[in-house]
Design a protein that fits this description.
65% of the residues lie in helices and 5% in strands. It is globular. The chain has one domain. The longest helix has 28 residues. It starts with a helix and ends in an 11-residue tail after the last strand. A three-stranded antiparallel sheet has the order 3-4-5. A two-stranded antiparallel sheet has the order 1-2. The chain is built from eleven helices and five strands. 28% of the residues are buried. The chain is mainly alpha-helical.
């Protein structure tokens, strides 16, 4: 066992243990012990458990990505301030001001990629469990050789969980892996697009950082589509399920905690205004420097006219 295998083996053991426990739970519910769907749903259960554990980091990722985008105008000011200055003192001052900007805004650039970095070892661990522990029927830790043989022989739509697009000539395998690769790439794109389009103000989308994010949004699905032909079906199921979870979790967080000035915030304010109107509460808006109080509608169905109040009303003049 080389250094990499020794390093990732504990994660392989954990992945295998979760799959075995999920498999035992599903069989207890009446699913066939050697069924392909039983093992496929064990992988889905693995995703759910891992993502529940990572929820706090995911929320930090959303906030960090949003914060980085919102800070871009201030970042550009710092860059313009030291543009063309290559001396060590200027570079140090620029770095210091950038870090101070991060500190004062409470933004940590590392937080935006932390969940992805933590998921990568789990991804490789599952890949090795499927590719070696199950395909070779040797097992890994709690996944005994008997269970590994059972999983290796199980099929969904006529394809085994360890089959790959390039590693099989079976038409069922080709079709299933192609569908999963397309689904994996499409959900990768939509989750990235959801984050940028719905949760970023227009002012934050016109800068180098946003352009880089757009490039990643289009590049990652292509990378996954190209590399996906070498992924076992079980790994494709894992990644597709992860993307579905990410999309749903991201939609919930964006809906509840939208970025200021984003489309999601506009939608949130519209929902709140609708709730107030249904409850018959007055809403207050600022129009042209004046406060406009909208009175609740009367029961006859007629809408009360808005009353204007001057913000700074001077002292009443005495009448002569």
């Amino acid at each position: 066992m080389n250094f990499f295998e020794s390093l990732i083996y504990p994660l392989e053991w954990v992945v295998a243990w979760i799959m075995v426990q999920a498999h035992a739970g599903l069989t207890a519910l009446g699913m066939p012990e050697s069924g392909g769907w039983t093992w496929a749903l064990s992988i889905v259960a693995l995703v759910i458990i891992i993502r529940i554990v990572l929820i706090p980091l995911f929320v930090k990722q959303i906030k960090a990505s949003r914060g980085m985008a919102l800070l871009q105008p201030e970042m550009r000011k710092i860059q313009q301030k030291y543009k063309g200055k290559t001396d060590p003192a200027s570079r140090e001052a620029m770095s210091r001001e950038t870090m101070e900007l991060y500190r004062s805004s409470g933004t940590n650039p590392f937080s935006s990629c932390l969940p992805i970095l933590l998921q990568a070892p789990i991804f490789f661990a599952l890949f090795r469990v499927l590719n070696y522990g199950i395909r070779n029927e040797e097992g890994v830790g709690p996944l005994t050789s008997v269970l590994a043989r059972q999983a290796a022989e199980s099929t969904i739509f006529g394809a085994r969980l360890t089959d790959t697009f390039l590693g099989s000539d079976d038409l069922n395998v080709k079709i299933l892996t192609a569908v999963l690769i397309i689904a994996m790439s499409a959900t990768t794109f939509t989750t990235q697009r959801q984050l940028m389009i719905k949760n970023m103000p227009a002012s934050a989308l016109d800068n180098p950082f946003a352009q880089q994010q757009k490039l990643i949004m289009y590049l990652f699905p292509i990378i996954f589509a190209v590399s996906g032909v070498n992924f076992p079906i079980g790994v494709l199921i894992y990644w597709f399920t992860t993307n579905l979870w990410t999309g749903g979790q991201q939609a919930y967080v964006i809906r509840r905690m939208p970025a200021p000035g984003s489309k999601a915030e506009e939608a949130l304010m519209a929902r709140r205004a609708l709730k107030r109107s249904r409850r018959g509460e007055a809403s207050t808006d600022v129009v042209a420097g004046e406060v406009v109080e909208e009175q609740p509608a009367v029961r006859t169905g007629q809408r009360a006219q808005p009353k204007r109040k001057d913000r700074n009303r001077g002292p009443a003049r005495s009448q002569n």
